[in-house]
Amino acid sequence: MFKSKKYWIWIILCGIIIGLIAGMVMRHRLEYINRPVPFAFYLKGGIDSAKAIDYVLEIRSQLERKNKELQSVLEKYDKLGIENLENELAERELKKTKFDRGEIQLNRRELIDLESEISNLKVIQNYLDDYGEADAYARIEEDCSAVIQLEKYCFDEIRKHVDTYVDVSVLRAQLENRGKELEALLAAEEADENQIKKLDKEIKSINEEIIKKEAKESGIAGYTLLMRREQALDALISENNIQFDPSYSSINDFTLKSGRVINSYFIIYIVGTIIVLILLSFAYNLIVKKIRVRRFRRLEFWRSRHFEKYDSFISIIVIYVILITFSIVAFWPLLNVFTISLRPDNNLFSTTLEIIPKDWTFDNYRHALFETNLLIWLKNSLIVSLSVALIGVIFSSSAGYAFSRFRFYGRRPGMIVLLVTQMFPAPMLLLPTYVILAKLGLKDQLTGLLIPYSALAIPFSVWLLKGYFDTIPRSLEESAYIDGCSLFNTFIKIVLPLAKPALAIAALFSFMAAWSEYVIARVIVSQADKMTLPVGLVYLQGEFATLWGVYSAAALITCIPVILLFIALSRFLVGGLTLGGLKE
Amino acid sequence: MNAINKENISIGKIRKKSTRFNNPNNLERGRRFDFFSSLKYQPYLYLLPAFIVIALMSFFPLGYGFWLSFTNMSLGTFKNPAFIGFNNYIQLFKDISLYATLWRTIAWTTVNIFFHVVLGVALAVLLNRKLPGRAFFRFLLIIPWAMPQYIAALTWRGMFNLDFGLVNILLNKIGAGKELFYLGVLDRFPIPWLTNASWLFRGAIITNVWLGIPFMMMIALGGLQSIPNTFYEAADMDGATRWQKFTKITVPMLKPVMAPAIVLGVVWTFNMLNVILILAGSLGGFGFEESQILVTEVYRQAFSFYRYGYAAAYSTVVFIILLVFSIIFIRVTRGTEEVR
Known about the structure:
The complex is a heterodimer. In chain A, 79% of the residues lie in helices and 0% in strands. Chain A is an all-alpha fold. The two termini of chain A are 50 Å apart. Chain B folds into 2 domains: 4-40, no CATH class; 85-339, MetI-like (MetI-like fold).
């Protein structure tokens, strides 16, 4: 086992992946050190200054809070010592639970004090867990000053950024130069038109940039606030006599330093994982070798009956993991719609991941069904889609039969034409379609939707059915024909019943195409009572902020019939989906 | 009618029989008799209804669009557009943004189709094994296909929301966002999926990959199930490894099934209008120029700038690109089949 190259490759790959994940998950204790790192990147990303200032304000407030917290932790530490820390914490937590149950009364002030004390004690405990009793105090002190330093560096960076960002004088100078050049060119007799155009373009773009920058200048009202805070910070530094660590001179040094910390963490995790994996595989081998013969026999039998013959247990697990992951990814958006549809109006925007919200209601469904036109849209869509499915199947099965059975002039070009129709850019078909339907007097009518939708659905169905008809042996039809059945009758009575799976799939796709088409319907239908579901839903969703929940409920109502259809027909999907293709 | 037809056939049969064995093509096909070839006008009758619809709704518009591309039709000249020759095309090819958009479209199509095919075939291979709960997984994996496209796109739009979207929340919760950010993979966090052009484009790719996998998966699954098991048994006898079995049996047998699906997939992806437009948040066709592909750009030109003539020229170019690609692809795949 240890000699094979494959084994080591797998172990190392798994180790790296699991180690990286573990490193990411376990890294939360280093988090505040990393705060400036995103910030530096943020600035490099060329974010506009107003946003950058918002960001730095947020970081600043976090750092400030952190600093205060650490200060109070230090005080606590001085007062309590660490011996009776756990007792104190337990005592306070007991008090809190009592208050929660309503056994004792506390006023607001006392409650806040209690909560902050609990959190402080927990912070101390974290430090103790991380660094041990000997180093904890020193560590807290160090972090205290580090936070202040970080804040200072934040200021440096934002100042630099804002100053260069708001400065438009350079651009103005450029603009003036270009203007002079242009004038000179225009004054000259034989002006080069291309050059003039180019200059014009440049002037325009510089002008735009200046306008943009000046607009953003108004967004930096936070700037003065920042400066005030910086003065306060300077005072704090001189007051506490904080010595700046000479090894970091800017934010970038912090980046590098925290980078090193993290990398070493990752390496530890990766190496640890690899060692664990080797041990596990060793143990597995031992167990399997010893026990396989006797006790695993029944298990082995079960495995060979339900799985492929040569699958080991590990590969079975890997297959399941992959399938489950992809299934979750495939399913999650639908689940998300479901979750949002259950949320009450006042809780639409939340950052929780729970699938069924605590205060779930069916209000949105009620609203969607009875206070919007959803039922009318549903009816319209059903009429259109069912008729399209019917027309599509009839037309395309006869066409597919012709392509499959007959050899006639124009057969191959005909097949290619069907493919070519898929290549037309949809937007360009819109205007002519509109013109035709208006001329035919079918605008604003459901019948008007039938024709373009059938044209959308037919080519793919023909391809599909042609492919399926090809797999049906001809001898059946031939013998029926010899027995006196007409060609049309053989088609109806022999070929179509045999092609049921493909017909079902073709009907499904025609239905789907009509059920979910948006662009054409939007152009052709403008009356509210003639809208189909897609148009209606997008109209609902347009009022994003207010009707998001209602939209979700409506979307789910729209999805469910199609998904049910899919489930019902899914046994045909595998066999029936043979694209006839271009090859003979 | 019936009797006449029958007689025709029998005559045709005899007539053909006399030439059949002289013609090597017929010998190769090895059919004893082929009554379908003697019915000269039948196939056109069968084709008629479908082709009337297609001609009315696809070819007339195509011709109309082609004519439009030589005129200066816009909102102002809607009633009486003037013929301006190749001016639209000249203007189009002079525009530098066309080439950027073209490259973006090619990238969009390649990335999408690559993931569709690779993930689709991989999942199909897994689903084709003997496995308890296989039907359940198949049902779950098919859902993106069963969801109407616009709902899927709107849902993803909700999921890409900066503060309350699932994607950012998830990245934040597992801490991966910050890590990737730190490693320089992400240039900012939380990710502005909908308000930054390049992130919008990436989001659209994710959405479209998610949408398109099930189609390829089901096609591949159908192809896999038609491979006779004896091939694998024979390979097992010869001691082939799994990888060898996959590359030497599965892939070549899947090729003829996947080739037309890939052509269709490329065409559909190239012409995918819904995802980008809906993600960009308005079907009025705004959104960023840096996240448009050719088709959405056509839509923008036509329905938000109302330059119908120019948009028609644009779409003609798109159509020709697709046509050339399909012809080349079909030739190439058929070429490989013959060699094999």
